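Structure first, sequence second, as always.
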């Protein structure tokens, strides 16, 4: 898997390191997309102003067909570039698929990319509770609500949008933006998503079919865990990408199945009321922060003196105790890894 690891002021010559785990290969355009999500630096800027290299090779960032294999890939500005270029050692605004478990856990300053990181700078007003990560309502109204949601998805999708399985006993309605956000009136979501759910998707809001799709139960569970997500190919197709080694291998590289022609109740065709692309983008962004943050295995492990800054960064991001020391010391690398 990919783990993007960022340096600090103490290791300024290493702006970023992309680690691809053992027995893995990745399309390089995906690597650029994930790094762009993590840093907020546009893909075009990464391609034109930064170089990517390992001990064995320098990569051609402009090659759309390039795949990269296991190893560490260092990211640095081109030698003649303006030093005012965006610094990749800075995290972009973090996003999380699920709401925080509690206000206290949010104030504690979770590790960047963790499931407890609030998705927006917007804070809920006082008196708004923060829900659990799942939606465990069991009231009759909740059962009816979910049944209506799943039935509407079934009428549109007819099958699992990932595998094509049409067995009704194997299928579930999957929310893209989790239903648990409703309990806190969507505070903490990016403002454009919040406004879409509250205003554009009335009266169903988060249960609108444009916030869901039909999936097999096991595929749905892996989607909620963000073991997999989807990348926009730019032509209306969404390709499944693995975000964790637990992703079902049979679906990686598959494309979401667009609904067959037909008309929905809102005067749109079924393809027109398929999942909102912004919601799928949000799932991918939050999956990148949660799953690709430098906490994976390191199958090399040995660093010479020249690689010490990289080794220190890996130690910080791969160990919660080291990371805690790093935060408490105000970003002092030496204190974090002593």
């Amino acid at each position: 898997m990919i783990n993007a690891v960022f340096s600090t002021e103490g290791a300024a010559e290493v702006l970023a390191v992309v680690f691809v785990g053992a027995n893995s290969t990745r399309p390089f355009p995906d690597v650029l997309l994930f790094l762009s999500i993590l840093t907020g630096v546009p893909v075009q800027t990464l391609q034109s102003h930064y170089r990517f290299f390992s001990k064995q090779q320098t990569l051609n960032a402009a090659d759309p067909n390039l795949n990269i294999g296991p190893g560490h890939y260092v990211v640095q500005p081109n030698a003649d570039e303006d030093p005012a270029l965006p610094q990749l050692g800075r995290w972009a605004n973090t996003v999380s698929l699920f709401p925080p478990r509690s206000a206290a856990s949010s104030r504690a300053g979770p590790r960047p990319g963790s499931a407890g990181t609030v998705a927006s700078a917007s804070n809920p007003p006082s008196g708004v509770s923060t829900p659990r990560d799942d939606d465990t309502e069991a009231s009759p109204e909740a059962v009816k609500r979910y049944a209506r949601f799943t039935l509407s998805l079934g009428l549109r999708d007819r099958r699992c949008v990932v595998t094509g399985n049409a067995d009704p006993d194997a299928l579930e309605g999957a929310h893209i933006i989790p239903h648990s956000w409703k309990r806190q009136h969507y505070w903490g979501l990016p403002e454009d998503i919040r406004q879409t759910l509250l205003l554009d998707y009335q009266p169903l809001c988060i249960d609108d079919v444009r916030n869901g799709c039909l999936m097999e139960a096991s595929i749905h569970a892996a989607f909620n865990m963000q073991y997999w997500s989807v990348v926009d190919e730019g032509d209306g197709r969404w390709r499944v990408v693995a975000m964790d080694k637990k992703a079902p291998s049979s679906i990686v590289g598959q494309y979401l199945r667009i609904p067959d022609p037909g008309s929905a109740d809102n005067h749109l065709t079924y393809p027109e009321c398929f999942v909102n692309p912004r919601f799928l983008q949000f799932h991918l962004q939050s999956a990148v922060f949660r799953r690709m943050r430098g906490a994976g295995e390191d199958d090399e492990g040995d660093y010479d003196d020249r690689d010490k800054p990289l080794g220190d960064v890996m130690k910080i991001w791969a160990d919660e105790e080291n990371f805690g020391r790093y935060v408490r010391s105000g970003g002092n690398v030496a204190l974090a890894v002593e």
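Margin note: The first strand starts at residue 2 and ends at 6.
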